[in-house]
Amino acid sequence: MSNTLTPAKNYQFIVSSYNQARKEFKELEKIRHKLNHKEFEEQNAKRLKGIGLEGSSRSSKTWDTSIFICQYIYKNKDKNKLIGICRDTLANLKDTTYQTLKQVWGLFGYDLSVFNKVASQINYFGCTIKFLGVNDNIMKAHGFETDILFINEALSVSQETRNQLEQRCKEFFIYDYNPSATVNSLYDYEKREDYKLLKTNIFDNPYAPANAKSKIISYADNQEPAYNIALKAGYNQEEWDKILERNHINGTNDLFMWQVYGLGMRAVGEDAIFKQYELYNEEPKQYEYILYGLDFGYKNDPTALVQVIKDGHNLYVKELIYSTGLLNNDVANKIHNLGLGSELIIADSSPAQNIDELRMLNVNATDCIKFQGSKMWGIQSIHQHKLFIHSESENLITEVQNFRYAKDKQNNFKRNTLGQRIAIDGNDDCIQAMIYAVTYYINPPESFDKS
Predict the structure, then answer these.
(1) Torsions phi, psi of 367, nearest 5?
(2) Tens of pLDDT along 36-73?
(3) Domains identified in the chain, total number
(4) Domain enclosing residue 67, as ranges
């Protein structure tokens, strides 16, 4: 390894965990012939299969993982190993993870000509590294086989997709992420016997770029002074208090940015559209009404159907369908299989023939209400209620956690002609379906009996 490579705390954790995983796998394979199916599965469920790297910005999560990948392909020369590197979209991956890997690749002295703007895979040392934006093509993600799986910013990937990727990963998976949400199904992995988690912060990386570290420390906020962490980093309390005071005077303090990107804590940011919601398992026994919202998709965008129950000021939302590649007859069949063919389903009104086809297939579908600003109006309508999401609605939960207001380059919120903040488009199929159902009730056609 080049002496210019500077692995931090995550690196040793990755290597030791990978070695543990391979050792446990080999030991189990040696005795597999002695075990019946039940005995094998009991032991197989416990052996280490992957890790999580949860931490602040610049705590070296992606850098250390890139070092591991570069070493892995060298140690597995001509073994035809497949490494999958994933993120929510390929565009985001190319702007971030791809660039980090390229930098580390160069420090190893590997040939940089294999990197180019359009490459979706690299072949080197008889191994293949594939890059995939999992939300760009969900069908492709669900058939993606790997020996090593690395998901960058894994909170933005749904549990269903993670499950599909994990079950096709032969050796070891690595998830890294900034904990920019207080609730996520990935956090439940901590309960698993086959998973280990390392939490880090900016001070765990002594090699963090000086400018980046200074910027992150400028977020430090006296509402979360973190004296214990600052003291471990070499500051005394008087010095740290001066930094907190300076940040306040300069107006750079930012509690969310400091908690998530400085300390690696789980928090919700000011740009999050749905800051508060709760999970539920049992539906209310009494309620005002049940409606269903349907957002059409096909190849890349999934078709999403949600159930919305209104009970006073409470909204209970459950994901019922979330799938790509569905034709209208497939959608109708799924709706009938759920026993909902006669229920009122509020569907995306564009293109109009979709609803006509569903009606011909005996689905009681009707147009949603759309007008200028209707999406933001729907969001405001949801904000007037307490939001509950079914605990098994993994895709809906992921969308809600990643649903953000758009900002410009000056970090100001973008607004529409009505002066409303606007949401970032994309990856909001369940949310759109929820909006269709909620807005239809609040401003329904006269023919709809709310009682």
Answers:
(1) -65, 145
(2) 999 999 999 999 999 999 999 989 999 999 999 999 99
(3) 3
(4) 9-200
